[in-house]
């Protein structure tokens, strides 16, 4: 870790930016307050109060602990909760700092790691003539080694981790108020701390380096996990709260566009869920994972961000009535139209792991042109990331050899353990499929079809609350 660095008052005031913005950039050194701990602490207490993060405090030792706060609070489906342990530290008699630890809980036990299978291969099933074909990302240790540089700074479990991002967020919220109390040669307008706090989950490593206005990021996923939709929602939340406008592209049938748009602009009540779930897509006899409860919950999370006035947009682009190259061309045309129409936004597009490839050809068709290959010649900034994960389960549709029909259900998914922390990691060059790197989601857990979980059913039981049993 680099040595601690004193941040000057003027530099700080210039860097804080607009009121309420959660700065995306996090330095890789500690934030040092140029004042005694006892003088700094009341402003820290005020920050957490203004951010609507209730806490208990041990006043004698200058330690406080916040109450549990849910990511995207009020979700229809049980998710993750966080709390913060904040400890005041004396750097010197006249300087101080904070140590903030984020503690994570989940009712679905995703953070509870079962036995690991150290196998980097990530099997995906695609179908040619009704027969399954297994594809996997290139097993190349020099490409898939653990991230270095910025990512190496964060190495601990997501269950209890020092949160440098939160430390700097508090610093940027507190210091403008403290600076007003100090004599300065040049008066600068002080930014106000955020009046509300949006819990976006633990920072996704590498995201801030790859997300750019005007850029297109293609994520090739394994359908049917809880983790990928959560990864998308967290990414969007962390970007839009920093001021970057984000448009999410979903591989759902274009016929669902109006329903999804209406839901995102709704209050998210029972009637709104019923209207969303009435579409045939959610009730398919062969649900392949794209209509999972996790995807539905992600839509709810994006709806909540929009309801807060944050700049989130969503579109769908799949053409399921087409196949082969015709479908690929149609996907590309739809995505390209959205990107060209709003070049001032960052576009985050998720799909199965064939479409994002920027290299020409597939094992059974050397002339095949995936969506990523077609887009890269028409959009200046295209990044394609393949999904990396630890072993677990996923909701997968696979061909049954005995009946020659699709068999959909919970299946084993084998991957490689690379820690608990979400991250994005790019290589020095693309691999043979045209991927620039990977996005890692940790241990994967199957997500059943949303309709099976009672979404869109007003008589369904409410989601669990973050009670003491977490």
What does this structure look like?
This protein has 470 residues and is α/β, with parallel strands linked by helices. It has 2 domains: 5-106 and 164-180, Kinase associated domain 1, KA1 (TATA-Binding Protein, 2-Layer Sandwich), CATH 3.30.310.80; 124-138 and 202-453, no CATH class. The protein contains 11 helices and 19 strands. The chain has helices at 9-16, 37-50, 141-144, 164-180, 207-210, 227-240, 257-264, 270-277, 293-307, 324-341, 371-376; strands spanning 5-6, 31-32, 55-58, 63-66, 69-70, 80-92, 95-106, 124-128, 131-135, 160-162, 216-221, 246-253, 312-318, 346-352, 382-390, 392-399, 406-413, 423-426, 437-443. A hairpin with a 6-residue loop joins β16 and β17 (406-413). It is globular and about 70 Å long.
List the helices and strands and how they pair.
Elements: E1 5-6, H1 9-16, E2 31-32, H2 37-50, E3 55-58, E4 63-66, E5 69-70, E6 80-92, E7 95-106, E8 124-128, E9 131-135, H3 141-144, E10 160-162, H4 164-180, H5 207-210, E11 216-221, H6 227-240, E12 246-253, H7 257-264, H8 270-277, H9 293-307, E13 312-318, H10 324-341, E14 346-352, H11 371-376, E15 382-390, E16 392-399, E17 406-413, E18 423-426, E19 437-443
Parallel strand pairs: 1-2, 11-14, 11-15, 12-13, 12-14, 15-19
Antiparallel strand pairs: 3-4, 4-6, 5-6, 6-7, 7-10, 8-9, 16-17, 18-19
Helix pairs in contact: 1-4, 2-4, 6-9, 7-8
């Amino acid at each position: 870790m680099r040595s601690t660095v004193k941040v000057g008052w003027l530099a700080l005031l210039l860097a804080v930016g607009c009121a309420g913005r959660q700065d995306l950039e996090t330095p890789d050194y500690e934030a040092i307050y140029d004042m005694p701990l006892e003088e700094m602490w009341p402003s820290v207490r005020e920050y957490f109060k203004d951010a609507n993060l209730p806490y208990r405090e041990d006043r004698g030792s200058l330690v406080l602990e916040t109450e549990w706060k849910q990511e995207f609070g009020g979700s229809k489906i049980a998710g993750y909760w966080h709390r913060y342990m904040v400890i005041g530290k004396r750097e010197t008699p006249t300087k101080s700092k904070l140590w903030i630890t984020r503690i994570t809980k989940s009712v679905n036990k995703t953070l509870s790691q079962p036995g690991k299978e150290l196998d980097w291969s990530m099997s995906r099933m695609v179908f040619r003539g009704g027969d399954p074909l297994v594809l996997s990302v290139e097993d190349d240790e020099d490409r898939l080694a653990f991230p270095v540089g910025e990512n190496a700074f964060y190495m601990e479990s997501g269950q209890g981790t020092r949160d440098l991002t939160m430390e700097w967020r508090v610093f940027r919220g507190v210091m403008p108020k403290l600076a007003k109390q100090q004599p300065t040669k040049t008066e600068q307008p002080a930014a106000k701390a955020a009046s509300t706090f949006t819990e976006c989950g633990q920072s996704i490593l590498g995201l801030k380096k790859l997300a750019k206005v005007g850029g297109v990021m293609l994520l090739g996923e394994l359908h049917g996990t809880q983790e990928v939709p959560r990864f998308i929602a967290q990414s969007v939340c962390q970007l839009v709260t920093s001021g970057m406008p984000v448009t999410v592209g979903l591989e759902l049938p274009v016929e669902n566009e109006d329903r999804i748009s209406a839901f995102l602009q709704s209050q998210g009540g029972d009637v709104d869920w019923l209207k969303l779930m009435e579409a045939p897509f959610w009730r398919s006899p062969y649900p392949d994972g794209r209509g999972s409860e996790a995807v539905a919950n992600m839509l709810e999370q994006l709806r909540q961000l929009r309801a807060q006035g944050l700049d989130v947009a969503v579109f769908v682009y799949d053409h399921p009535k087409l196949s082969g190259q015709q479908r690929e061309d149609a996907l590309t045309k739809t995505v390209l139209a959205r990107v060209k129409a709003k070049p001032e936004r960052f576009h985050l597009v998720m799909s199965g792991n064939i479409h994002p490839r920027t290299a020409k050809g597939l094992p059974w068709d050397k002339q095949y042109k995936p969506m990523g290959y077609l887009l890269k010649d028409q959009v200046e900034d295209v990044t394609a990331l393949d999904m990396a994960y630890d072993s677990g389960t996923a909701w997968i549709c696979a061909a049954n050899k005995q009946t020659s029909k699709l068999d959909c259900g919970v299946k084993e998914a084998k991957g490689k353990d690379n820690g608990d922390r979400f991250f994005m990691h790019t290589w020095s060059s693309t691999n043979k499929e045209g991927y620039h790197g990977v996005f890692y989601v940790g241990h994967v857990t199957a997500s059943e079809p949303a309709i099976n979980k009672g979404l869109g059913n007003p008589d369904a039981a409410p989601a669990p609350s973050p009670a003491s049993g977490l």
